[in-house]
Specification:
Layout (H helix, E strand, L loop, with lengths): L6 H18 L9 H12 L5 H16 L5 H5 L5 E5 L6 E6 L2 E5 L6 H12 L12 E5 L5 E5 L9 E5 L8 H7 L4 H12 L4 E5 L5 H9 L8 E5 L11 E5 L13 H8 L6 E4 L6 H9 L7 E5 L3 H13 L7 H11 L2 E7 L5 E12 L2 E11 L2 E4 L13 H9 L5 E2 L2
Parallel strand pairs: 7-11, 7-12, 8-9, 8-10, 10-11
Antiparallel strand pairs: 1-2, 1-6, 2-3, 4-5, 5-6, 12-13, 13-14, 14-15, 15-16
Helix pairs in contact: 1-3, 2-3, 7-13, 9-10, 10-11, 10-12, 11-12
Amino acid sequence: MSPAPDPLDDLSARLRDRLVEQAAAAEVVEDADFDAQIRELVDREAGVLGPASRAELARRVAERSFGLGPIEPLLADPHVDEIVVNGAGPTGRVWVGRAGRLERVETGFAGESELRHAIERILAPLGRRVDEAEPMVDARLPDGSRVNVVIPPLAVDGSALTIRRFRPRGFGPADLVAAGTWTEGLHDLLEAAVRDRLGILVSGGTGSGKTTTLNALSAFIPAAERVVTIEDTAELRLRQAHVVRLEARPANVEGRGEVSVRRLVRNALRMRPDRIIVGEVRGGEALDMLAAMSSGHDGSLSTVHAGSPEEALRRVETLALMGGVALPHSAIREQIAEAIDLVVHQARLPDGTRRVVSVAEVVRVAGGPATREIYAVRAGRARWRIAATPAVGEARSASALLARLAGGSSAEEQP
């Protein structure tokens, strides 16, 4: 059942249109006090309302005129992680993500024109535009939040706006332990793995927290190392002093000026990095990333969309084949086995919590790289699968690392 319409919302939309008409007719004085002009308009057109209602109406008119309309309060709510707008008008819906779960809110845009106005206000300061010629856009707000827009005719039921909020501070390793994403033992394993310069791939589905885990893993990198981060949309916030952040650039309206993640990965090799962090591999840059990780940049990190550690390796192999280099499958598999030591798989559980549910080491088998699970969450319990303590010289073996930490015993942890 749809929520009852709010009379003040309808009235604020009409007054906002009136304000636009006054501006077009030069009745609004440039550089004037717009708040005062809005209050004057509200007093003139809605004088029958009480002082509290008029003040609320003036706030909503200002919000619609200079802010992002009905989603402005949602952006101000620190507990909101995502905002999803599915169209406008009576059939439009607005959903917010809190603590990993989406819930509908009783607000929305009065019409498609108002929603498009808010979208334009978001994109204009970023130098981006969306129209019938380019009906999709992916952008980053100044505070780091990610924005995705799809408009008709691609969005059949009206423009779709998705905002993924950015946390300025981010989650550190201790925060993820407190939130239940990692256990204490897993924290120790991952810290040792990063410091031991193992190549780590974080896998998971959309919204599972891959970037959050990647950012937390980066906290274990020694402060003296030079790190280059490469992202399609910059989200990582490393706390080290020597960090160079690179962000891909889409083509302009004329179809020129694109700088892909793959080009940035290649360029990063000339920047004398100790480690390279690729926010997410989605295409042919996987081949360049593997080449970098297996040719002197040990300890590099990245993420990939996948449903399991095994699927993560297959996905990287498929993406590497998209690199356009005529390499045999066996050569690519060899590079994967050489470059990636650990796959950390994360999932979003039905209750909305995000948790690392599997850690697997990459081992060599006759057909190429394979995974051997050394940590898993089953029925809510964390289990370690650890082989006997290996020889001291096996520094690049994840099971050797785990055995050194856990003393070679099979442990079981409560979440």
